[in-house]
Amino acid sequence: MIVFILCVLLFLVGLYGVLIKRNLIKIIIGLAIMEYSVNLFLILVGYRDKGTSPIVTKGLENALFVDPLPQAMVLTAIVIGVATTALLLGIAVMIYKKYGTFNIRKINELKG
Amino acid sequence: MEILLIVLFILMIAGAIYALEAKDLLSAVVSYGIVGFGLVICFLLLQAPDLAIVQIVVETITLIIMIAVVLNTTREEIKDKVPQSMIVYAVLGLIFMFGFIYFFILSLNGLSEFGKHATRMATEYIQGGVKGSGSINLVTGVVLDYRGYDTLGEITILFTAVIGVLTVLRSRGRKKE
Question: How close A111 gets to chain B, by Cα (Å)?
Fold first, then answer.
């Protein structure tokens, strides 16, 4: 049970970065950390004691496998995550070119 | 096994905290890499080799993009004083965090213990997956056969994001006549 709590703690660290930090790069890092912790949580839930990876080879037809369903879903989520992170970083670069700062409060002031 | 995971998690949390608190953005990005590569080892320990391979590729690409962004813009963290109105945001954030923790504790009762997971949906995939999908790797069977439309949606999002990045970063616009 303690691994679940530590995983949620990692999520909270990312949430702290998103809510409190004022630097755009740090906010993006916080979002990425939150995404990683959610992926990790799903895999932790699907783990079974003494289970092997879900690859059926000769002699292992009736072995105890870990749950393949969350692994497949998280595989999708990781690829989507890197795409969105790259898009966010691209927008951050354009914001820096326009305003010359990463400070989100300064960007708010310079509107118009 | 569980102790090893706990040690890795503590390392990852420390890396995450340093990434958010570092004064230099480049060291923040590099220590963010600790979290990603720690995740790779966690996936290997949790018997998910496919995920570990994907994660190590993705993490390397993300780190390269982030380092390129930081080197092309600025490495300095914001130095100005914390304004008074930040206290309001901090309190709101704390309230949000405590609400999150409250709902997590509520939902903890519904979870089975670590390692005692009972496969309900995946039992059919495990028993008939090799015959049904023809793939000895059950994860591939789920991704490409049982949930193929989900993968189609994923690829749609991926290409939309790539087009978005190309549009945002395009240096030359259309020439004005």
Answer: 19
